[in-house]
Each structure stands twice: as structure tokens, then as C-alpha cells.
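Our preliminary data section would be incomplete without showing what the modeling component actually yields. Below, a chain of 95 amino acids is followed by its predicted structure, encoded as C-alpha cells that our downstream tools consume directly.
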Amino acid sequence: MKLTAYPDAVVLKRPKDNSELTKSGLFIPSREVPKREDDRVQLHSAEVVSVGTKVKDDIKVGDTAFYNAYDSWDMEDGGVVYTSIKAKDVQGIQR
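Predicted structure:
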């Protein structure tokens, strides 16, 4: 399946972790993630696989994007987990 991002979105391929996918499509972490006691935001990273047409040329397929997963959509295809986020939620890029 080829995923295409909406014009103002970015589709990311998440690295495999120790989560379980339930039959209803929910991801259950295998261990509890400790909460931060300060106001820092925890960023996640993933490989960019599709970039929308309205996204600036700063984000390219193959980059590693750092993002806040607060407003993201997850999907699974063939055991690979993809995340769709708005381009404005990308906090940084590593090439």
C-alpha cells in the first residue's frame, strides 16, 4: 500500500517498539511510560515516508522528523505502524 499525505500533513513510519496491537487497532505499550514532573514536552522521532503538497521543501521523504505525538493518527499495514501528523507539528528534522 502506498500512503499519500494530505496537502498539509506528513506521514511517518514509526520504529518498531514493544507495543501490542489489539484486534480493534489500539496500541498497548508493554511497559508504563513514566510521566515527566516538569513542563518539558516529550518528542518522538520517525522516518518521513510522504509529504503533502502544501508542506515547505524543508521536510523531505527519508528525513527523520521529531514531533509531539499529542495530535497524531496511527495506522498499521503489514506489521508496520505509520503516523500521520500536521506539518506544523514537526519540531525538527535530521537528515
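Residues 9-94 form a domain with the 10 Kd Chaperonin, Protein Cpn10; Chain O fold (CATH 2.30.33.40). The mean pLDDT is 78. Preliminary results of this kind motivate Aim 1 of the renewal.
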